[in-house]
Specification:
The chain is mainly α. The protein has 2 domains: 68 residues, no CATH class; 284 residues, no CATH class. It contains 11 helices and no strands. α5 crosses α9 and α9 runs antiparallel to α10. It is globular, with a radius of gyration of 32 Å. The termini are far apart.
């Protein structure tokens, strides 16, 4: 041959693998070796150069793949922190709404409320409604427990955001192509954070147990029948509210998006980066911070003991919500939602312990029986 070409081959045509050590994969080594051997036999130097160019492009592709993986990890980390923020802030708002709904519908009618009546803006109207009761009062003991309205509202909102079909937009009030439809952190904040904190099983269960026990209200005694109806009504109203929320979402969805019945993956996997991505968490942070500041002022400045309980509940709410979020990963392991069961089980134990301690301190009858 007229043109000698440097090649990582031995005299007998065998490939020396050590000469290909700098290459990153066995596939690249085999490809370059095959091209080199073929081109040396034919004396085609240009083909050898082309093979080197192909290797250079492969290296660039590998670098691009590494950068893509790095960007994916960054986006995943960013989304995780955004989820935590949504869950925490929505849990504070949900907890606040639950305790005030309890007051509006009957908690202010409790004659045994610690610290006496709550002299704030809500008292003049709330202490006359008296729809629900905790089972501790002399006159209003009954099956409509304190947290019934909150459970109904939370179940309704949950139904609105779940939808009747898996590929329906998560927020039925917005257009199907609205950027917020693809904000999974916002959806999780509304359902797991807000609705999960607005609704309660543990407090409801504790109220029913106190009613059946009867020591909290010696005038009414054990209210077993009322407590059993409380369980039945609680389950039925929550289920009906959830189904009503789904039906309402279907109605709004049909009105809001008349030309779109199914969207498949059109918006499910879309990720957006615009002003809405961070402005909503900032607004939620301002609202949550303002609520806690008002509650602390009510405790420290106006000396209303009730607000101390509220701001402490708001501080602790994000921890319970994040635990519930992590436990939800176990929901698909068995035929029933194990994660939800464990979170409610632990919450019921904590609620029962706090209720027992509170009852021991507030009712002398329990102290005599201990």
């Amino acid at each position: 041959m007229d043109n000698d070409v440097a090649s990582p081959t031995s005299i007998d045509g065998d490939v020396d693998e050590d000469d290909y050590a700098p290459f990153s994969s066995s596939t690249e080594v085999a490809a370059i070796a095959a091209v080199d051997l073929a081109d040396i036999d034919s004396g085609n130097v240009a083909a050898v150069d082309a093979s080197r160019d192909a290797l250079h492009l492969a290296d660039e592709s590998e670098v691009d793949g590494t950068n893509a993986k790095s960007n994916e990890r960054t986006m995943l980390r960013e989304q995780t922190w955004l989820n935590i923020m949504y869950l925490s802030l929505f849990s504070i708002i949900g907890s606040s709404l639950r305790v005030f709904m309890g007051r509006i519908f009957g908690a202010d009618c409790d004659l045994n409320v610690e610290g006496g009546q709550i002299n704030d803006f809500l008292w003049p109207s709330s202490h006359t409604i008296c729809i629900t009761a905790s089972g501790k009062t002399e006159q209003y003991g009954g099956a409509l427990f304190i947290d019934l309205p909150a459970n109904m509202l939370g179940s309704f909102i949950m139904g609105c955001n779940v939808g009747r079909l898996a590929d329906w937009p998560a927020i039925p009030f917005l257009a199907y192509n609205h950027p917020l439809q693809s904000d999974k952190g916002l959806h999780m904040g509304i359902t797991t954070g807000f609705c999960g904190s607005l609704t309660t099983l543990s407090s409801w269960n504790s109220q029913m147990v106190m009613m059946m026990n009867g020591n909290a209200n010696p005038y009414l005694g054990s209210q077993v029948i009322a407590a059993l109806f409380g369980y039945i009504l609680g389950l039925q109203t929550s289920l009906v509210s959830f189904r009503a929320g789904r039906a309402f979402a279907a109605f709004v969805h049909a009105k809001r998006n008349p030309d779109h019945d199914s969207y498949g993956n059109e918006i499910r996997w879309r990720h957006y980066h615009n002003h809405l991505y961070w402005i909503i968490p900032v607004i939620l942070l301002i609202v949550s911070g303002t609520l806690i500041a008002v509650y602390v002022a009510g405790d420290m400045y106006w000396d209303i003991l009730y607000y101390r309980q509220v701001w402490i509940a708001c501080i602790l709410a994000p921890f319970g919500t994040l635990l519930r979020w992590k436990l939800s990963a176990w929901n698909g392991t068995l035929s029933f939602p194990l994660g939800t069961f464990l979170s409610n089980f632990m919450a019921s134990i904590v609620s029962a312990a706090i209720t027992a301690l509170d009852a021991y301190q507030r009712f002398p009858l329990l102290q005599k029986n201990v």
